[in-house]
Amino acid sequence: MLEVNGLTKSYGKLMAVSGVSFRADYGETIGLLGPNGAGKTTTVSIIAGLVSADSGEVLIEGKQVKSDTDPVKLKIGLVPQDMALYDQLTARDNLIFFAALYSLAGAKAKQAIDDALTLVGLLDRAGDKVGTFSGGMKRRLNLAAALLHDPQMLLLDEPTVGVDPQSRNAIFENLETLKKRGKTLIYTTHYMEEAERLCDRIVIIDHGKVIANDTLQGLHKLLPVTNVMAIELDQADGFKVEQMLVLPEVKSAALEQGTLRVGVHDLSRGAPGVLRWLAENGHSYHHVSSEQPNLETVFLTLTGRSLRDSK
Amino acid sequence: MIPFLALVRKDLRLFFNDRKAVVVGLVVPILLASFFGYLFGGQGGNAETSKVPVLVIDQDGSDTSRSLIAQLTDDKNLEVKPSTLDAARVDVRKGKATAAIVIPKDFGKDAGHALFTGAAKPELGVLYDPSHNVELGMVKGILTGAVMQAVSKEMFTGRSGREIVDESITRVENDARLPADDRKALRDLLGSVKAWNQEQGRESASGQTELSGGLTVPFQTREEAITSGQDVKYNGYAHSFGGMAVQFILFMGLDVGIALLMLRQSGLWQRLRAAPLSRTMLLGSRTVSASLVAGFILLVLFSFARVVFGVRILGSFAGFVGVCAAFSLMTAAFGLMVAALGETVEATRGYSIMATLVMVMLGGAWVPTFVFPAWLKRLTVVVPTRWAMDGLDGMTWRGLGFSSAIAPIAVLMFFTLLFGVIAVMRFRWGTD
User: Fold this and answer.
1) Which of A97, A101, A153 has the most B C-beta neighbours within 10 Å, making it the best mutation to test the interface with B?
2) What pTM value is reported for the model?
3) What residues of chain B lie within 8 A of the CB of A49, using their CB?
4) CB-CB contact of B73 with B262 (8 Å)
5) What DSSP assignment string belongs to B169-235?
6) I want to staple B242 with a disulfide (CB 3.0 to 4.6 A). Which of A116, A280, A307, B392 is the partner?
7) Which residues between 266 and 295 in chain B have a beta carbon less than 8 angstroms from any beta carbon of chain A?
8) CB burial of residue A288 (10 Å; 0-12, 13-18, 19+)
């Protein structure tokens, strides 16, 4: 369905995207995961034809978007990160307008609008002005507006930014429905839980480059550890994590906000050694727990930085 | 066609949805145009103008000075009040009076001597407010006529006139330097004046005739306003409504540009760009919707002017429509150029408001261009609003034919093309 090959884009001296490549099959959901400023939105913008790449190519069903009016664009539905709705118009009027952009009118448009509103659960609010909607409702309508021309592929640029957990869950359910209908979803996010829940494959991007591209299971295999010990230190100031790496059972170590996360292969064999080392070196702690590695851990392992706090 | 119509319809709906903005956008220009129209002549071009406040300080107290003050008081353009020299200085400085005329002691006598014998002319003091130069010219003109009438009347028919003529005859007889021929001629002239004066005095006493009114300006003017036809009066509201329409439509165009600039930074722009729409369609639909809104504003303003102030399109209706359409398109192109050249909304708003105000000012939308100095009038030919105003004036109160609309339409279309090309060339299509 989608092939992205060696995309590069720079803005002056800033290299926004550098050699990004991945592919998405029909019905597949691809998560573009990375911190803010990683290059996810630029990548999506290039795929949607909003920004031209300096080099590389985007193929949709084997074809490049060659002009503004290229019919290939009909295959794409874009859900921008910023709300793309007219507050002064009703939900239905918004959708009538967006449907018309794809030459949909009359009964065909009405059907498409009703279907989209039904999917996102806003049919009963169709006659209300968008300005009266909550943030979560606007996000759902923002999604509906991209579905009217029944695109095969949806580009979702952080579609849950700024919404409450309930609305986020509703959007996930909408997306899972679309996934079941065989749509290809390209989903950018910096929330690992979203990527873990929804995506078949995850492309991790950092500083404009793809640093991993695999299924969730595949990404876990990249990890040198299968268990993480989370140790809340009494006094984290001056603690040097690299000193821990000399221990044979320790595969990774990171300190964040007073919590020391230590990766070990075998918890039963590694934990006593780690705790003994801390005691011998005068580092007291007040809580110890174990965690399963997740995408946060993967990102941490691959970049040495936290996903949420990376710049 | 469906997307194009949808884009235009959406712009119009967004414009008309904001009803408060629409009402304010129409009411404000109507109020301003009504005010300016009244100032610049109103209906029939004879709106009452305020009188020029003038103070008179009579230090002479003669029949001549009293007659002069009466002449000035009778003038419909002046509001004359007596004053003292000190009070007049204060009032002129404070702007309460435009001028103060000081009639010095012995003015009547000295002016009479100067009239007959060429003796030294007495001085009339005129204290004036330097910010009212135009009115000062008018006051001096009225004063000249009034002095001639008052002095000559007194000399030919008044008591002091008889005394001065007698004095003048004595002076002529005793002036040894005067050649004999000149002395004889002057003696004859003054003798005739004396005889006339005595005759007037007798007739006046017996009630047989009125006194002469003195020397007056030997002509009067017959004014005819050249408008679209005979008996068609100038309507100042035609110009003011045209001017305010031009101004507010330009501001509307500016708003279109700013809105497009803001749109480019929003998700809506991404959605529009993601749809299979050409750039021509995106900018073209904006041009059409902005032009339609401009046409709507013109329609409402001139309809109001027609119903309330009797403004009529006395020239070519087709020419009027052509000028309106060309100006509307030019405004839309101006808005697109603003959006294309603008970097940030804040900065763009600042410099484009300045550019708009300059265009409005130089175009003669506030005050007619005839008050401009010659060099500035020549300069304004490069300002599109000047052509819009010329076209609207020509097709409304001047009552000119379609041929007179061709040049304004052509120039406005040239600017439409120029602004449009700049907009297309400089428009940044990528998302920011």
Assistant:
1) A101
2) 0.70
3) 273-274
4) no
5) HHHHHH-TTS-HHHHHHHHHHHHHHHHHHHHHHHHHHTTSSPPP-----S---------SSTTPPPB
6) B392
7) 266-268, 270-279
8) middle
Which pLDDT band holds residue B64 (cuts at 50, 70, 90)?
Answer: confident
Interval B382-431: pLDDT, tens: 899 999 999 998 898 888 899 999 999 999 999 999 999 998 888 877 65
Amino acid at residue number A220: H
Which strands form A2-11's sheet, in the order they lie side by side?
A14-24, A2-11, A55-60
Chain B contact for A49 (CB, 8 A cutoff): yes
Give the pLDDT band (50/70/90) at residue B163.
Answer: confident
Say how far residue B37 (Cα) sits from the centre of its chain: 10
CB B431 within 8 A of CB B264: yes
Interstrand relation of A227-233 and A285-291 (parallel, antiparallel or unpaired): antiparallel
pLDDT reported for residue B346:
82
Q: Is B3 on the interface with A (CB under 8 A)?
A: yes
Token duo for residue B160: 């002091």
How distant, in Å, are the alpha carbons of A17, A303, B199 from that of A32?
A: 13, 16, 118
Q: Which of A124-133, A197-206, B185-194 has the highest mean pLDDT?
A: A124-133
- Which residues in A lie closer than 8 A to residue B6 (C-beta atoms)? 96-97, 100-101
Query: Nearest CA to A185 among A175, A195, A172, A170?
Result: A175
Phi, psi of B41, deg, nearest 5: 120, -20
For CA atoms A106, A112, A117, A123, the dihedral sign is positive
Q: Which domains does chain A have, with CATH numbers?
A: 2-216 (3.40.50.300), 224-292 (3.30.70.920)
Q: What is the number of other CB atoms lying within 10 angstroms of the CB of residue A47?
A: 25
Phi and psi at residue A60, to the nearest 5° = -115, 115
CATH of domain B52-198: 3.40.1710
| Residue spans per domain, chain B | 2-42+236-426, 52-198
Residue position matching structure tokens 């407010």 = B129
> Is A311 a residue whose pLDDT tops 50?
no
| ipTM rounded to 2 decimals | 0.78
